[in-house]
Structure to design on (119 residues):
């Protein structure tokens, strides 16, 4: 992938596998966020993927808002989502986390995400 090695980041791999983004879209987003230009791809393909990625990011945010609006997300857990986002940011900044701790973190995140749905 070049910009980030998925083989070395179990949490990142877990998130990507469960996300709505393709690996290529993720790569475009990652490079864009970190100020890197994608190489080895034509300009046209790059801008097409960039546009698709932007639209998908916006769609994910609007989907979360829609689900909250209609009450499909457990209201008591919405604050947990904000705290979870903050913790994920902290984890992403960490240099090294032990393998067993990573599995525990993934399990907790998975349980929290599953518990948010009222469907």
């Amino acid at each position: 992938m070049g910009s980030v090695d998925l083989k070395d980041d179990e949490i990142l791999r877990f998130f990507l596998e469960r996300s709505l983004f393709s690996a290529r879209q993720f790569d475009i987003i990652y490079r864009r966020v970190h100020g890197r230009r994608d190489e080895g791809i034509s300009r046209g393909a790059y801008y097409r993927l960039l546009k698709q990625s932007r639209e998908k990011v916006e769609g994910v945010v609007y989907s979360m808002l829609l689900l909250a609006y209609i009450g499909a997300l457990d209201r008591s857990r919405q604050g947990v989502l904000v705290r979870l986002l903050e913790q994920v940011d902290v984890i992403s900044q960490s240099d090294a986390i032990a393998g067993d701790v990573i599995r525990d973190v993934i399990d907790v995140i998975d349980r929290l995400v599953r518990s948010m749905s009222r469907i």
About this structure: The first helix runs from residue 10 to 18.
